[in-house]
Amino acid sequence: MQQISLYDALYSQWAVRHFSDRPVSDEAVQTILDAAIRAPNGGNRQLWRFLVIRNAETKRRLGQWYSDSWTHMIDNMTPEERATQPYRSGGDLGNGMAKVPVLMLVCVEHPNGPPATAHISRGASIYPAVQNLMLAAEALGLGTVITTLHTRFEKEIKEYLGMPANSETAALIPLGYPAEDVRRVRTRRFPVADVTFYDRWGHKKAS
Amino acid sequence: MQQISLYDALYSQWAVRHFSDRPVSDEAVQTILDAAIRAPNGGNRQLWRFLVIRNAETKRRLGQWYSDSWTHMIDNMTPEERATQPYRSGGDLGNGMAKVPVLMLVCVEHPNGPPATAHISRGASIYPAVQNLMLAAEALGLGTVITTLHTRFEKEIKEYLGMPANSETAALIPLGYPAEDVRRVRTRRFPVADVTFYDRWGHKKAS
To answer: Does A81 map to a domain?
Structure first.
């Protein structure tokens, strides 16, 4: 991994949806996964499972499911949402998925069956690892984007990939070198002051 | 933020549950939150909300809820689980929460009401920010640990903190300088080979 600083890694992360056909080495994949598994996770149970997909037909099928989900989402948006949200490259991503060098399907396997809770905190033990994965990729000059649209076809995908009933998918992450002709868009964020409260919801000043 | 490398940050992250009483500056909190909001999130909607809690009574109440949840969890574990899982410091954390300099309650606010899905991917747009937050804290020499046990009392906590119905809590993260007398435990992980499949679930070799 290059000696990129943490600060640079966090502030220069961007969503890559167009990739060059430059191959991604197995060594790079191993480096990235080794960083992913350092992430915090509940009880250190390490329920993460990583499916590294290079098979062209499998990538094509996943791309088709992604595209179908993307179309469904766009169809259900208002024109304003369509214009303001950064979804414009989503269609390209689905269509191009077969040619992305690697698809990383990040999964969770529950030894005692699926959890009973529907709380958002179900994701607390997998998405820190997903973020590590993407940051480590960035340090190697590789691009990624976290996607979850495929989960609309969770059942079909699990069957297609031979996933057991006690597993689930958490994120589908294309991995490759960014296409050379894609303009890097700087991350735009509301400032911290807009999303931070102090001691109690709605209080905008530190007490 | 210190010039810690990404690699060092990812590989030296550890769970801190015992803190010194050295104060944490507002500047440090701002630096950490500014790094958190760089994280990827669906449609760049930035539904994250951060509650920065310094009020001693509020911290004490949250610590009580945490302790109650911790006790409930331990009571429901087998002796083997209790011995092998790294929960031993959880009781100390709950008891000491009032004296942790800052509690960060990371929340999500859904403009159109709570989401319909119970899928794990609900967490995809908040836990990358949580991980950024913890990595940025580490770069400042601060310790954190991601906890979700408080969610057992989600309803009570939301009411206590004045949180609206369309919001939810995702993680409660104590923030402070690590206690000096706590031995740092090196992260133990199963190797990548144990948790990685190729092209299809169960395939252990790249094709």
So the answer is: yes
